[in-house]
Amino acid sequence: MTDEWRPERGELALVGDSLTQGGDWDALLPGEAVRNFGMAGDTTDDVLARLGDVIDARPALIALLVGTNDLAWRRSVEHVVRNIETMLVTLRKELPETRILAQSVMPRGHEFADQIRDINRHLWQFAPTVHAGWLDLWPAMALEDGELNPAYTEDRLHLNAEGYRVWAGELIPALERIRELPPSSRAITLPDLGGAA
């Protein structure tokens, strides 16, 4: 409901591919002022190329989820990880006061599970280095073998209404947690070690 929106929360930018684009986020995230930067078919290269649009919008909070389309193009785990890490570093540098939430690459067909787990392991370790939060969607979305739960999809990739409902159920508390963190814009000062060059 619109009367629940609190302006001091600022705008939430959702950044990603068709998974992000396809969500009815105004309904799924009541109380949020959502700007949807999802674009169908986007790979990490594509999102990286249009990151300037997100930066120009200067949102208060960014939730990023991208990477599954790279696998269809047979991009390596290293390629996906490097691109997402570059996105996170760029966002942090250009928007020092914006809160950032990195989300794990969604499960899809189980044949992609090992690659996606590998990508997510790297991103989980990297996110804190740029003061970004981390949301692991796998426990809620994947079966034991890494397959996207069939209850949430018709094509083993895109989400149905139930899939979006479950995703939003994970995203809402994650957004609240990240809003409660101290600001990440303070300069990091190193201790003076007495003239060591």
TrEMBL record:
It comes from the Bacteria. Residues 15-166 form the SGNH hydrolase-type esterase domain. Transmembrane segments: none annotated. One of its GO terms (molecular function) is phosphatidylcholine lysophospholipase activity. CDD domains: sialate_O-acetylesterase_like2. This is Lysophospholipase L1-like esterase. It comes from Leifsonia soli. The lineage of its organism: Bacteria, Bacillati, Actinomycetota, Actinomycetes, Micrococcales.
